[in-house]
Every structure is written in structure tokens, then in C-alpha cells.
């Protein structure tokens, strides 16, 4: 079990952009993935308030959803995003880390359906939610 | 007969347009971090994402990270929307270029939702994007963005987003 998470962690950390954003894998098993991204000054979208840019949240959402699709028991290969929609509920509190939890809730022969929620450390209303479709590889 | 106003010298107009665009792009840390630039032809903007190793999402292929693609298209949408929203003030000269040059950023539209279609994998090379504003009201705007790499007609991604427009200061 520990080996599995270590492997998954190494995999996520091998993604140059995820590493650039200091993403840290918390959980990845059975179609559920949790990834944390610390606050950083270079990810700011509004310098007046210090609020993170939506694009940085997109990158975290995409990585986490992809990880959830990949660790679903009936999807053993890699995956690619077909489409991803993100709803921005509120501005993330400046200085706080963002944690995204993604769940792959259905897999067909060719498509994995995933939804995700991103929260900051203040709890309450999520910062953003996402839903997307991902490819299922390694089967025809 | 009333005399027609003499057109402003081209360098004056260009200076104002370029100062506004520079403030919009360089004032945002995340845009600088991704290395996104904008090229301007009159009022038409093209976003450019020069390739960089840190943008990779799949080291095996290699391919640009899907999150980077979404971010690039979202940045292009927001900058184009802000630019269009400010255009009248830029042209009339009511925009305060001195304050912009001192780092005073105009208020930006806020993303309500953003939906990205991944049509092809993003290759390890430069990417381009252009946004089209399909509807822009007092409060809400709907923007479509197209992203391509080597061929303008072979899009690697497209997106539609809704934005909340900045409200006049009280």
C-alpha cells in the first residue's frame, strides 16, 4: 500500500509542470485522488489582493482529475483530458494552500468521467469545482 | 464648415495602446510566470506561449500540461476582454497611462466558469491563441478562445468562458 502511494507520488512529481507548482500527492487510490498545492507569489492573478490566478487552479484541477482517472480500477493505462469545465465559486484566501479532491465516478470502455472540488484552508464553500471527461487507454 | 479634428500622430496612439497592453500583461505575476506574451495588430490581440520545459505535463510524449493549456486560453480571454473593455478610453485618451506605467492595474473581469476542449495534444513548441467576444453586457461576458500551434486551422484546444465584468468604482 505504501509502495503504491510512493510510486504514484513519484509519477506526479515526474510531471515537470506539477513539480514547478510544488504539487504534493496526498491520496491516490480506487479512482480518488487528493493533491495539495501551496500558495506562491508567482501564481497570483490579482497583485492588488494577492488572490491566486484561476489558471493555477486549472492546472491543479487537471492534474488531480487525471490522477483520479488513472487510478480507477478499470483504467490501467495513462489518460488524456478530453474536456474539463471549471466553475469558480469564490476567490481563494491569499496565503493559503489549495487542496483538490477528484473522484472518477464512472468509466466506460473509452471514457472516464471525473468531478473535483478545490478548497482552501478556510474550509466552507469550495474555491472551485470541476467536471471533465478523460480518455481510457490500453483497451480497444 | 467645421474643421475636422486632426488625427493624432501615430506614435501617440501607439504609445497609449502599448502602455495599456503592457500594464495588463506585465502586472499579473502568473502571466509572467508562464511567459505569456501578446502581439497587437490594431485592436487585434494574439496570445503567445513560448515553449518551456516547465510547461510539460506528460514527459513521455512529451506534451504541454492540460492545465497550462487551460490557463493560457483563460489568460488570452481575460486580456482580450479587458482590452476591448478599455479600448474606448485608450482611443479617447481618457485612460491614465502614467498610472498604468507606475503599475496601477485596471480592474479585471473575473472568471465565472471556463470550459476547455482538448482537441490534440499540445506539442513541445510555441502555442498561439485568439479570443472572440461573443457577448459582452454590463455585467456578464461570454468569450470563445481558439489555440493552435503550427497550423492556424488545426486547433489543439478551444475554450468558452463566462466572465463577470468589473463594476464602476463607487
UniProtKB/TrEMBL annotation, chain A:
GO MF assignments: 1,4-dihydroxy-2-naphthoyl-CoA thioesterase activity
Superkingdom of this protein's organism: Bacteria
This protein's record includes keyword Hydrolase: yes
CC per GO annotation: cytosol
Membrane is among the record's keywords: no
Keywords assigned: Hydrolase
Pfam family, one: 4HBT
PANTHER family, per the entry: 1,4-DIHYDROXY-2-NAPHTHOYL-COA THIOESTERASE 1, BLR7284 PROTEIN
Listed name of the protein: PaaI family thioesterase
Protein species of origin: Sulfitobacter sabulilitoris
From TrEMBL, chain B:
One GO molecular-function entry: thiolester hydrolase activity
Annotated source species: Sulfitobacter sabulilitoris
Protein name: PaaI family thioesterase
Domain of life: Bacteria
Domain Thioesterase: 64-153
